[in-house]
Amino acid sequence: MNLLLATAGEFPTYFVIVYVVGFIAAVTIGSIAWYNSKRPAGWENAEKPDYIPDVKTEEQTENQS
């Protein structure tokens, strides 16, 4: 709350809200992309959390047809 009050004098509050929501969206989308990518060294056998959706590549789609 102090962040919104501190920035209210310089920037409109909705600008700050847009930046915060955009940052959260970027982190969320980046996390989903990272979890669906190849695993880094040492993470090959790590389980993916259940809340991360599966994203199928074109190669996987062609193999199923």
Explain what you see:
With 65 residues, the protein is mostly helical. 57% of the residues lie in helices and 0% in strands. The chain has helices at residues 2-7, 13-36, 58-64. Keywords: Membrane, Transmembrane, Transmembrane helix. InterPro entries: Psb35.
Gyration radius, rounded:
19 Å
Beta strand %: under 5%
Class by SSE composition = mainly alpha
Tally of separate domains: 1
Outline the secondary-structure elements:
Elements: H1 2-7, H2 13-36, H3 58-64
List keywords for this structure.
65 residues; 3 helices; 57% helix; transmembrane helix
Quick synopsis:
This protein has 65 residues and is mainly alpha-helical. The protein has helices at residues 2-7, 13-36, 58-64.
